[in-house]
Design brief:
By secondary structure, this protein is mostly helical. Among the domains are: 100 residues, no CATH class; 112 residues, Cytochrome c-like domain (Cytochrome Bc1 Complex, Chain D, domain 2, Orthogonal Bundle). It is 49% helix and 6% strand. It has 14 helices and four strands. It has a two-stranded antiparallel ribbon. A hairpin with a 7-residue loop joins β1 and β2. α4 crosses α8 and α10 crosses α14. The longest helix is centred in the N-terminal third of the chain and has 51 residues.
């Protein structure tokens, strides 16, 4: 931004200098040229010289002027409707072009920190954890014993996929100040800005204490939109898990937040971890889900759509926007199987 401001200032000064120099040259030339004696302007001034008489003005000259006027009027009559018809498409293409340029900038921000970038550009290394196509990955993370901070353990953390993240979060414009970002990406913007405390996902936004400004986060979300897979493809991929095994479905889509240590269980078994016992999400065992949702159909709806910011759900639950909705990824039968499993914990 400093470079851009300096460039604009330099161009402004250059334009002013050219205009001033031109004006100075004109004054010098006008005052130094010789030829006409003082008072001759009475005869030589353009507004004092005789012009065409009536026969010349109202003859072929007038016909030419009228012909050019008619041609100009015909051009305007044809051009304006054509421009009007093309205007909606032009505006739409302008928006598409804006998003494509934003996605291109976001792709540079997303790529690995070790990848080459053009001079003056940045890369924040998102691909190092989430995969080069947002398919998910694994990264090292240091766990600290809450009872003894001197005891640490390095684990392998399963990083979630980003090519389905815009299928998991529901629309909530209140969580996003940019109208162009209204929709699921608003919650994604919040996550990027403030991170996920207690996980390898740090806050990236300036408001969260990170290095990214709002424009960079907006560009990054624009790129994530381009790698998003469709709901049909996601459901086809998830159909491999079956439609009746609630335990397997819970493990694949819910345990990351609701089971302590799930994300690093391949490298370290968290002591006392219980399926659905609560972690980043609330405890689902000992009948808690039945007390929260006395009607199973309301729980099915909640898992399908996710939580909306500051909106009630179940028995006096208040949505935070952090609970994703899985209706775009799972079939109704699969969500019903998850609900049956959770209510059995």
């Amino acid at each position: 931004m400093v470079v851009a401001a300096s460039t604009q200032r330099t161009l402004g000064l250059a334009i002013v200098s050219v205009l001033f120099g031109g004006w100075l040259i004109y004054v010098l030339v006008a005052n130094l040229r010789s030829g006409h004696p003082p008072g001759s302007e009475i005869e030589t001034a353009p507004n004092r010289r005789p012009y065409f008489d009536d026969d010349q003005l109202e003859g072929p000259r007038l016909d030419r002027m009228l012909s050019w006027g008619l041609i100009s009027l015909a051009f305007i009559a044809v051009f304006l409707p054509i421009y009007w018809l093309r205007e909606p498409g032009r505006q739409k293409n302008a928006i598409v072009g804006f998003r494509q340029r934003a996605a291109k900038r976001g792709a540079e921000l997303f790529q690995s920190a070790s990848a080459p970038v053009p001079p003056g550009h940045l890369s924040f290394g998102c691909a190092d954890c989430h995969g080069n196509k947002g398919q998910g990955g694994v990264t090292n993370f240091t766990l600290t014993d809450p009872k003894d901070p001197t005891k640490v353990r390095i684990v392998q953390w399963q990083v979630p996929a980003l090519n389905t993240v815009l299928l998991r979060f529901t629309e909530d414009p209140k969580m996003c100040n940019d109208p162009l970002q209204a929709g699921p990406q608003c919650e994604v913007t919040q996550i990027i800005t403030y991170g996920r405390p207690g996980t390898p996902m740090p806050p990236w936004g300036v408001n969260g204490g990170g290095p990214m400004n709002d424009q960079q986060i907006s560009d990054l979300v624009a790129f994530i939109r381009t790698i998003k897979i469709g709901s049909k493809q996601a459901k086809a991929d998830d159909a491999k898990l079956g439609a009746t095994d609630g335990h397997a479905l819970f493990d694949a889509f819910c345990a990351r937040c609701h089971t302590k240590g799930w994300s690093y269980r391949a490298s370290y078994a968290e002591p006392g971890a219980v399926d659905g016992g609560g972690a980043f999400g609330p405890n689902l065992t000992d009948g808690d889900e039945i007390r929260q949702f006395s009607d199973p159909s309301k729980q099915v709806l909640f898992i399908t759509t996710g939580s909306d910011y500051q909106k009630l759900y179940g028995a006096r639950g208040i949505g935070s926007g952090r609970m994703p909705g899985f209706g775009g990824m799972l079939s109704a039968a699969q969500i019903k199987a998850i609900v049956d499993y959770e209510r059995s914990l």
